[in-house]
């Protein structure tokens, strides 16, 4: 095989991206269906929530191992295994006769999805030359943000017309088709690497990331003083500290944390963390506001978010091309300022805010976010030498999981606590204005109205904190510097097939 770069095979990248799309889509597709599943299997809200929590936990536990897997195995084998697991889990979920089977199916799905995303990011990053990486990562961003964003809309429509199992049967044929196409079309060669997985690192990683993710996710519902939350967070933090120290002692670490000695990658991680927290505020708080307070149907709630998803899908490749020409700094500052302003406006919600205003505000907000995430991430990865790329992509995926859990739990906690505070204040104020003690019926009605208003105020406070977090991202964006890749000696070739050699070589 010649040592010259050829054009990437876009057909193969399309197969990989389609697999990633359905994997990400499944992450949010089931959320709106949870009430229907509760009813069919006669399980509690806390139990059914494990369909989402379990999926996230398996993702969080698996992702740190992907750097080792990408290093040891070729892309074809990893992708086939990942899509195979995802397809099996999807089919099992559709035919699940009982809740434990459905939960197992979701976890099998997650084990495949966790491998697909870092693998695709690594393949795209090593396949495209530095001057085209912004465009390629923009394509990746289209998948990364568009799929989860349309999940609630698609799910709402399906649940309104069909059984919840249809959600699995819609995804299954696509995932199986991708698996078949990948089996016949995806071929890559790679030098045999004798890498071994450190058992202690795996244990510390599982307990660390699993404990932190579960602890923060549970804190929003159970409260920070719950013994389970305290214990899991403590185990998670101690295990993560042990994991970090362990990695620095190993010659071949499972997840090489030396990626953080590169300043632009470290900066990109912090900015991504703040942006994810800000992004999750709307994804979590808007459904509560729309459905619980305003009484808007799930499908209309999903439709509110659809224009924003479409804008993000359109903008991701465009921002990628802008990044290739001008770098990440101007894009990040502009996008984060838009995010801060729109998030602040979301902190001014009332019981009569127009639906159309919410659609416009959410769409503009997603437009701003689309200008930040992939350019900042690509700029950070560009600074890493080739040997650190798998570790960088795995770390980025891990940060998304952790920041989502941390941001979600903090914002839900702020909303809950502030709602209680506002409720007490509003009730005292309402009673003080009465000329006579209220009757029982009047008091009940008054409490219902006050509870709704207090929840809105709590949501507004959470959005305000989210805006403050995004401000940190704006400040950090001013320190971004354009990076150049250090991968000069390690060229990647992806070529059209002939009779004598494989289609692609991904080192």
TrEMBL record:
<feature type="domain" description="Major facilitator superfamily (MFS) profile">
    <location>
        <begin position="12"/>
        <end position="485"/>
    </location>
</feature>
<feature type="transmembrane region" description="Helical">
    <location>
        <begin position="196"/>
        <end position="216"/>
    </location>
</feature>
<keyword id="KW-0813">Transport</keyword>
<feature type="transmembrane region" description="Helical">
    <location>
        <begin position="12"/>
        <end position="34"/>
    </location>
</feature>
<keyword id="KW-0812">Transmembrane</keyword>
<protein>
    <submittedName>
        <fullName>DHA2 family efflux MFS transporter permease subunit</fullName>
    </submittedName>
</protein>
<feature type="transmembrane region" description="Helical">
    <location>
        <begin position="462"/>
        <end position="480"/>
    </location>
</feature>
<keyword id="KW-1133">Transmembrane helix</keyword>
<dbReference type="InterPro" id="IPR011701">
    <property type="entry name" value="MFS"/>
</dbReference>
<keyword id="KW-0472">Membrane</keyword>
<feature type="transmembrane region" description="Helical">
    <location>
        <begin position="330"/>
        <end position="347"/>
    </location>
</feature>
<feature type="transmembrane region" description="Helical">
    <location>
        <begin position="228"/>
        <end position="245"/>
    </location>
</feature>
<feature type="transmembrane region" description="Helical">
    <location>
        <begin position="302"/>
        <end position="323"/>
    </location>
</feature>
<feature type="transmembrane region" description="Helical">
    <location>
        <begin position="108"/>
        <end position="128"/>
    </location>
</feature>
<comment type="similarity">
    <text>Belongs to the major facilitator superfamily. EmrB family.</text>
</comment>
<dbReference type="InterPro" id="IPR020846">
    <property type="entry name" value="MFS_dom"/>
</dbReference>
<feature type="transmembrane region" description="Helical">
    <location>
        <begin position="165"/>
        <end position="184"/>
    </location>
</feature>
<feature type="transmembrane region" description="Helical">
    <location>
        <begin position="359"/>
        <end position="377"/>
    </location>
</feature>
<feature type="transmembrane region" description="Helical">
    <location>
        <begin position="140"/>
        <end position="159"/>
    </location>
</feature>
<dbReference type="Pfam" id="PF07690">
    <property type="entry name" value="MFS_1"/>
</dbReference>
<feature type="transmembrane region" description="Helical">
    <location>
        <begin position="265"/>
        <end position="290"/>
    </location>
</feature>
<feature type="transmembrane region" description="Helical">
    <location>
        <begin position="54"/>
        <end position="71"/>
    </location>
</feature>
<keyword id="KW-1003">Cell membrane</keyword>
<feature type="transmembrane region" description="Helical">
    <location>
        <begin position="78"/>
        <end position="102"/>
    </location>
</feature>
<dbReference type="InterPro" id="IPR036259">
    <property type="entry name" value="MFS_trans_sf"/>
</dbReference>
<dbReference type="InterPro" id="IPR004638">
    <property type="entry name" value="EmrB-like"/>
</dbReference>
């Amino acid at each position: 095989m010649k040592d010259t770069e050829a054009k990437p095979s876009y057909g193969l990248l399309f197969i990989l991206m389609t697999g990633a799309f359905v994997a990400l889509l499944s992450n949010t597709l089931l959320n709106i269906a949870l009430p229907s599943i509760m009813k069919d299997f006669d399980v509690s809200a806390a139990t059914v929530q494990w369909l989402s929590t379990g999926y996230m936990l398996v993702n969080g536990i698996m992702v740190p191992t992907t750097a080792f897997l990408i290093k040891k195995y070729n892309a074809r084998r990893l992708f086939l295994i990942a899509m195979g697991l995802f397809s099996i889990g999807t089919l099992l979920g559709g035919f699940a006769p009982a809740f434990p089977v459905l939960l197992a199916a979701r976890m099998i799905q997650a084990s495949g999805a966790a491998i697909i995303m870092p693998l695709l990011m690594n393949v795209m990053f090593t396949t495209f030359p530095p001057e085209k990486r912004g465009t390629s990562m923009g394509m990746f961003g289209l998948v990364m943000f568009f799929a989860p964003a349309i999940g609630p809309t698609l799910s709402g429509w399906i649940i309104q017309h069909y059984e919840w199992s249809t959600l699995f049967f819609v995804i299954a044929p696509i995932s199986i088709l991708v698996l078949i196409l990948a089996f016949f079309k995806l071929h890559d060669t790679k030098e045999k690497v004798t890498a071994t997985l450190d058992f202690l690192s795996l244990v510390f990683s599982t307990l660390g990331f699993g404990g932190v993710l579960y602890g923060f996710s549970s804190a929003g519902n159970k409260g920070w003083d719950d013994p389970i939350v305290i214990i899991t967070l403590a185990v998670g933090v101690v295990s993560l500290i042990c994991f970090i120290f362990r990695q620095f002692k190993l010659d071949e670490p499972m997840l090489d944390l030396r990626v953080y000695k590169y300043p632009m990658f470290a900066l990109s991680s912090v900015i991504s963390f703040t942006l994810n927290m800000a992004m999750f505020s709307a994804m979590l708080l808007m459904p509560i506001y729309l459905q619980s307070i305003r009484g808007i149907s799930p499908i209309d709630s999903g439709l509110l978010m659809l224009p924003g998803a479409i804008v993000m899908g359109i903008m991701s490749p465009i921002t990628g091309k802008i990044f290739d020409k001008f770098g990440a700094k101007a894009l990040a500052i502009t996008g984060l300022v838009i995010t801060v302003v729109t998030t602040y406006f979301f902190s001014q919600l009332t019981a009569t805010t127009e639906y159309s205003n919410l659609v416009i505000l959410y769409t503009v907000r997603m437009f701003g976010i689309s200008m930040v995430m992939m350019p900042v991430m690509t700029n950070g990865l560009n600074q890493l030498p080739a040997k650190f790329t798998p570790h960088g992509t795995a770390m980025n995926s891990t940060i998304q999981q952790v920041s989502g859990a941390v941001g979600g739990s903090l914002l839900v906690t702020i909303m809950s606590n502030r709602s209680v505070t506002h409720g007490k204040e509003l009730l005292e104020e309402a009673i003080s204005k009465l000329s006579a003690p209220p009757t029982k019926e009047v008091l009940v009605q008054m409490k219902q109205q006050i509870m709704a208003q207090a929840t809105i105020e709590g949501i507004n406070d959470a959005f305000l904190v989210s805006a403050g977090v995004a401000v940190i991202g704006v400040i950090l964006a001013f320190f971004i510097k354009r990076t150049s890749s250090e991968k000069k000696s390690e060229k990647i070739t992806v070529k059209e097939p002939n009779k004598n050699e494989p289609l692609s070589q991904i080192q």
